[in-house]
Amino acid sequence: MDDKKPIAIIAIALVVFLAGGAWWMSRNTRKPAAQNASPAVVTGTEAPIDKPPPPPVKLPPLDQMDDFVRPLLSALSSRPELARWLATDDLVGQLAAAIDQASAGGSPARDFKVIKPASPFVASGRGSRRMIDPAGYRRYDGLVQTVTSIDASNVAKIYKTIRPRLNEAYRRMGNQSSDVDNALRKAIDILLDTPVVKDPIPIIEDGKAGWAYVDDELEGLLPTQKQLLRMGSANVDRLLVWLRALQAALE
C-alpha cells in the first residue's frame, strides 16, 4: 500500500465530479415549468422573446490553461486543500492523467504531495495481528470534505467550458480511440464498486508495497479501490454516497 496513492483518489474524485457536470448539463438543458406558476399572457402582437445563447468562450491553448482554470476552480471551494493543488502547474494535464489512470482501476501517475496529510500511515497491533489504526483515517477528513462540499451545478458550468482542452490533454496521452467522457464513466463505475469495510481491517507486512490486506477479496480489488479503503469506512461511505448522488443526477 503506497501511502501517497490515497491522495490521488481525491484527485480522481474531483475529476469525476468535474466531468460529470458535462452529462448533467447535456441532459438538463431545459428546466421544467413550476407547477404553481401562472401561464404567461400574450396580448396583441406581442410574442415571447427567446434570449440568444451566450457566445462560446474562447479557450487559451492547452499549455496556457492554468491561469484560465485557477479562478474558475477556486470559486468552487475555499478549502485549503484545493487551494494548494491549484497552485501547482498543468492542472488540466493532471486532471486528464487522473481520468486516464482511474478508468483502468489504477491511481494517477502524478504524485500529489502538495495535499498529502502531514501524519504518516499507522498500523496498530503486534506480530501477525496488525490492523489499520482507525485514528489514521482522520488524516483524510479535510480532503474528503473538500470533495463533498463542492456544488454540482457550478462544477457543471465549469466543465462544459474546459472540456475541449481536457479531452485534448486526454487524447495526447495516446487515447485516440476513446474520449474523456467514456473514461470517466469507467472511473465512476470502478469507484462505486468499492466495498465499505468496517473496522478493524487486518493487514500484513508486504516487502513490495509495505502493507497488504489479509482478506484475499480486499487484496484482490483494483488498486484504486484498495487505496480508497485506506481512508476509512466513514470517509469511503461519504465519497460513495456523493458519487451515487452524482450518478443519479447524470442519469
Largest sheet: 4 strands, antiparallel
Overall helicity: 40-55%
Number of domains: 1
User: Based on DSSP secondary structure assignment, what is the total number of beta strands?
Assistant: 4
- Rg, rounded, reads 21 Å
Structure description:
- The chain is α+β, with helices and mostly antiparallel strands.
- It has one domain (5-27, 58-250).
- The protein is 49% helix and 7% strand.
- A four-stranded antiparallel beta sheet has the order 1-2-3-4.
- Helix 1 (5-27) runs parallel beside helix 10 (233-250), helix 4 (91-102) crosses helix 6 and helix 5 (141-148) runs parallel beside helix 10.
- The longest helix has 23 residues, at 5-27.
- It is elongated.
Give descriptors for this structure:
single chain, 251 residues, alpha+beta, 10 helices, disordered N terminus
Short description:
The protein has 251 residues and is α+β, with helices and mostly antiparallel strands.
